[in-house]
Design a protein that fits this description.
324 residues; alpha+beta; Sulfite Oxidase, Chain A, domain 2; nine-stranded mixed sheet; five-stranded mixed sheet; globular; binds ligand MTE
């Protein structure tokens, strides 16, 4: 077992902690984002101790009680340390680096409503607190595999997507579901910046069969408390057999549709980011292999181990039949 030790993300450059291929791959995109003024953080003028204290504060959130669902555990890898997961994020609305946790604190999460409509018999608008009481909350521990070839194991709190399907009762012609996320460029980029060429808001989509699968989950929390803003508060998707970019953060709208919806990364580059985006170790990304991953675990320092990537991220028994 090889363990690579690296310093915390706030003190290292992006290309040290991201697969080289993906670093260069997204470079143009990231330059656009940084060029527009986001990605600038307070970090430059803060001591490491102050940053650490501030990071911990962003994770100190109200507890979210839930039943542990023992069917969803990860036996062969430890849960990623919360402080690592909370400082190593992709949330491009708030910047083009992994260290967006400070910028993401600008996200206004109260009040928050989620509109569920389209081809359904029972459209709903939920306040976020309604979701916590109307649906049975459970904790599930899932593997998480980013398309950039890094991975984590994360304990999510939330409810199965299937419960929402039951609540809104889709019409028979509903075949796909679109998930749209929070977008206000005055908040995410700061006043005066416009990135018209990128297809905001960040959107994702699933087929209705995928959404109905046992694994498909809405997270309202992580590590036993509410979701921190950097992880996509107050509601995000978790679909662990797919690459991480399918897990849209900070959802405001869910729409049942007859046709496959447009999605963010697929619109930017359909060759590199498929709509389906299942974890497939045998299918390389056009510019890097997907056969292995850098697993970020729970050792005392931010570090990774190289692990083999599994088909469907290890969830073939649950989802293989969907694609046969
Ligand atoms: N959702 C939104 N709204 N914006 C984003 O930039 N990035 C995606 C996904 N959801 C993203 C998003 C990508 S590329 C990944 S890998 C995961 O969020 C990262 O989730 P995490 O930062 O909580 O680990």
């Amino acid at each position: 077992m090889v363990l690579f030790k690296v310093p915390p993300s706030y003190s290292i450059s992006e290309n040290l902690v991201t697969a080289e291929g993906s670093y260069w791959n997204r470079r143009k995109f990231i330059q656009t984002v940084i060029g527009a003024g986001i990605g600038a953080t307070l970090m430059g003028c803060q001591s490491k101790d102050d940053q650490y204290a501030e990071l911990k504060k962003t994770l100190d959130l109200p507890k979210l009680s839930a039943t542990k669902n023992k069917a969803f555990q990860v036996g062969d890898r430890p849960i990623t340390k919360e402080l690592f997961a909370g400082q190593y994020n992709n949330f491009y609305e708030f910047g083009g680096t992994k260290g967006i946790w400070q910028n993401a604190q600008n996200l206004p999460t109260k009040p928050w409503q989620v509109e569920v409509g389209g081809l359904v018999n029972n459209p709903q608008t939920y306040d976020i607190d309604d979701l916590k009481t109307k649906f049975p909350l459970e904790e599930r521990i899932y593997r998480f595999r980013c398309v950039e070839a890094w991975s984590m194991v994360l304990p999510w709190t939330g409810f199965p997507m299937r419960e929402l399907i039951k609540a809104v009762n889709p019409k028979s012609n509903a075949k796909f579901v679109s998930f749209s996320t929070y977008y206000d460029e005055n908040v995410t980029y700061g006043p005066g910046f416009h990135l018209g060429s990128l297809p905001w808001p960040y959107t994702e989509g699933l087929s209705i069969e995928e959404m109905n699968n046992d694994l498909a989950f809405f997270a309202l929390g992580i590590y036993g408390h509410d979701l921190p803003k950097q992880h996509g508060a107050p509601l995000r998707m978790v679909v662990p057999w797919k690459y991480g970019f399918k897990g849209a953060k900070s959802i405001v709208k869910i729409e049942f549709l007859a046709e496959q919806p447009k999605t963010y990364w697929n619109t930017l580059d359909s060759h590199e980011y498929k709509f389906e985006a299942n974890v497939e170790p045998d299918v390389p990304h056009p510019r890097w292999s997907q056969a292995t991953e850098k697993f970020i675990g729970n050792s005392s320092e931010f570090s990774w181990e190289i692990k083999e990537t599994l088909p469907y991220n290890g969830y073939g028994d649950y989802v293989g039949a969907l694609y046969s």
